[in-house]
Amino acid sequence: MIPALKLHDGHTVPCLGFGVWKASSGDCYNAVRTALDTGYRHIDTARIYGNEEDVGRAIRDSGIPRNDIFVTTKLWNSDQAKAQKAFDDSLARLGLDYIDLYLVHFPVTKTRVAAFAELEKIHATGKTRSIGVSNYMPAHLDELLKVCQVKPVVNQIELHPWLAQKELKAYCESRDIRIQAYSPLAHGQKTGDASLKPVADKHGKSIAQVLLRWSIQKGNIVLVKSVSPQRIQENFAIFDFELDAGDIQTLDALDSNLRTCWDPSATP
Ligand SMILES: NC(=O)c1ccc[n+]([C@@H]2O[C@H](COP(=O)([O-])OP(=O)(O)OC[C@H]3O[C@@H](n4cnc5c(N)ncnc54)[C@H](OP(=O)(O)O)[C@@H]3O)[C@@H](O)[C@H]2O)c1
Known about the structure:
There is one protein chain. It is built from 10 helices and 10 strands. It has helices at about 25-40, 50-60, 85-95, 110-125, 140-145, 165-175, 195-205, 205-215, 230-235, 245-250, and strands at about 5, 10-15, 15-20, 40-45, 70-75, 100-105, 130-135, 155-160, 180, 220-225. The strands form 2 sheets. Strands 3-4-5-6-7-8-9-10 form an 8-stranded parallel β-barrel, surrounded by 5 helices. A two-stranded antiparallel ribbon has the order 1-2. β6 (about 100-105), α4 and β7 (about 130-135) form a beta-alpha-beta unit. The longest helix is centred in the first third of the chain and has 14 residues, at about 25-40. NADP nicotinamide-adenine-dinucleotide phosphate binds next to β10 and α9.
């Protein structure tokens, strides 16, 4: 069982999620089946990933009760002016009756506020249990929190030791908005980082497992992607060890504003 974290709207979410960005349609179905067999109960997809059908089919074929799986998808930028239709289309592609979390994928300047208001309407129908945002900086959240009726439950952002996002994390957590940490392996760029080998060896774990464990111990909801069965299992085996204060200090010292995905900080 993966530990669950409570969202401010009362729903709970497994603290480790399985991401499927860049899992091609061919790979995605098998990867999600393997992830569910391994024990993951939280899947993160998006309209723009082009694999919602595979995610939905893998969930249905798994035989696991729908209520036991937390499913997230996201509203793509060019769909922000037609959020209801985009949501209906995502739900149809997933082949599900509801999703657990629907996110505004990116804070597009002109359309983001109205788009979130549409998410509030969808939320009121119960077809998504929770709503949130992704890639929002404090300025985007300041604007939203002034006008929203339903506060976002999460802000899904890039976060790993090289991009610890301390200010943004503190901002969100002080407002009861949980951090969903994407690209926890720095999009795969840091799984061979020599500076972390001693920490990994000390615990008999891989560097990838140390990176995931660091983010879990920071209280984040962590989203990791792999299409390899061996790595899917490796990334799941992180609940049987704990980093100590010295290890955490070693990882904290790596913070260096390394972005591997997009940078929303210049988006007005
Ligand atoms: N909201 C957003 O804007 C946003 C942006 C980016 C990501 N996300 C979400 O977050 C998820 C995770 O982020 P991510 O996919 O960018 O990056 P990530 O999980 O940090 O890294 C994935 C990469 O690392 C490799 N990998 C995975 N486990 C490994 C291991 N144990 N050892 C060595 N290599 C390993 C994977 O290759 P293999 O597949 O070949 O194993 C893949 O190339 C995404 O899939 C997506 O769901 C959201």
